[in-house]
Amino acid sequence: MSTMLEYDVVVVGGGPAGCMAAKYAAKTGASTLIIEADTEIGKPVQCAGLISQRAIEESETKDKSFINCEIKGAIVRSQSQELMIKSPGKSAFAIRRDIFDSVLAQEAQKEGAEIILRRRVKSVAKGAGETKLRIRTANGKEEISARVVIGADGVKSKVAKMAGLRVAKSFLNCVQVEGVYKTEDAFADFAEIFVGNTIAPGFFAWAIPLGAENIARIGLCIDKRFSAQSNPLLYLKRNLAEHPLIAKRYKGARSKFTAGTIPVGVRKRGQTVRVDKGILLVGDAAAHVKPVTGGGVYYGMKCGKMAGEIAAKASLTGDLKMLTAYERRWRKEIGKEIAFGVKVHRLRCILSDNDFDTILQTLSQEALLQQIQEKGDIDYPSIVFHEFLKNPRLIKLMAKNIIKYLYTK
Ligand SMILES: Cc1cc2nc3c(=O)[nH]c(=O)nc-3n(C[C@H](O)[C@H](O)[C@H](O)COP(=O)(O)OP(=O)(O)OC[C@H]3O[C@@H](n4cnc5c(N)ncnc54)[C@H](O)[C@@H]3O)c2cc1C
């Protein structure tokens, strides 16, 4: 069976980046369609669901039913040190991504965007004046044409591949489980971060409380280039069974393990736009992720708005050259933050467990801790890292590791 639909803007993928892009394309006046491969928006969930107050504001949602609880700070733990960071007035929230994504989809629909589910885009080909998407459905094949296509189809983006675009510099491999996790009351609304080469080489492990019944999301990412084992599940299973704190607190899963991949860093300019094919990439497909924390929801929504607006304008005027403005705009907003984050990530990958101890011990000094609490920002971590670089002990440690890094390379 073959049908032919035509839209000004087609968004492939109904995650936060895609929903926001579709909302803004429709708002700008373009006929807009989201094509989503899964049977439901927001499922399956592959996310720890920790986002900032700023991200919630960026979502523009009135319905806040997706919030699990407020997170009041973080406790960072290395093998022998711990640092408790309170974040007064700068809230973060644990959210349910399935509900969050479906609220975003509804908001896009309210602006006029249409959504079709259970349709996987198989190919993207340029025709005369439009881009054709071939889609596989339960009943066979369909073809949909669009003046502009936005690839918001996640880290393994088919749209990027078909457009010959390679964005991410490297990837993290992640696993998570939701389960019973009994913390002391004093830490009940603090996210825990665990660093160390036997715990989560090249990244960190986390436990994010969900506000009730001692349930938490417990997970980790690894950077395979720096880990002895390439399967992150082996580390998670070991942490759950043997880590002195995690194993004591973890009382069993209430959901299965989920796994996912996170892109780290943008390779080079020009990889998120194909003017000749009328294609833009956004969200994980464009590596719009903070390399320091792995969070991509806020940047995905932020860049989704830009992509949707620019795609609609280009499509409605027929001037595809306008699409080049997209990369300029997102780079201006988050390009430097991502590039700085890549450097921090690379350094983190080669730190020893003793280095992590020294860093946490240094940061525990009152003045530094106060700076972290005042300037720490999960969406823009470079602000506080620049402060760290003024501390002589940390400069010395970093200098040693930069030399080590250059030799490791
Ligand atoms: C374990 C883990 C924990 C994380 N924790 C956090 C966190 O706490 N905070 C945070 O901000 N970020 C977190 N992230 C990152 C965050 O989940 C992503 O950055 C975010 O989901 C990216 O949104 P997106 O819209 O770009 O892509 P996605 O949310 O991945 O959505 C892409 C959509 O495209 C669809 N799709 C794919 N291919 C096709 C196709 N060919 N045709 C049609 N549809 C298609 C998919 O089904 C999917 O619905 C985490 C990631 C992982 C893996």
Give your account of this protein's structure.
It contains twelve helices and 19 strands. The protein is an alpha+beta fold. The strands form three sheets. Strands 1, 2, 8, 9, 10, 11, 18 and 19 form an eight-stranded mixed sheet that branches. Helices cover 36% and strands 28% of the residues. The protein folds into three domains: 4-48 and 98-168 and 267-334, FAD/NAD(P)-binding domain, CATH 3.50.50; 72-93 and 170-262, D-Amino Acid Oxidase, Chain A, domain 2 (2-Layer Sandwich); 343-408, no CATH class. Residues 12-18, 35-38, 46-51, 120-121, 152-154, 158, 174, 176, 219, 260, 262, 283-285, 289, 294-298, 300 line the site of flavin-adenine dinucleotide.
Notable features of this structure?
globular; 8-stranded mixed sheet; D-Amino Acid Oxidase, Chain A, domain 2; FAD/NAD(P)-binding domain; alpha+beta; 3 domains; binds flavin-adenine dinucleotide; 12 helices; 409 residues
Map the helices and strands.
Blueprint: E1 4-12, H1 16-27, E2 32-35, E3 50-52, H2 53-59, E4 67-71, E5 73-77, E6 82-86, E7 92-95, H3 97-110, E8 114-116, E9 120-126, E10 131-137, E11 140-151, H4 158-162, E12 168-181, E13 190-194, E14 205-209, E15 215-222, H5 232-242, H6 246-249, E16 250-253, E17 258-266, E18 273-274, E19 279-281, H7 297-317, H8 324-350, H9 353-363, H10 366-375, H11 382-388, H12 392-408
Bound molecules: flavin-adenine dinucleotide.
The site of flavin-adenine dinucleotide (FAD) has 38 residues, from helix 1, strand 3, strand 9, strand 12 and strand 17.
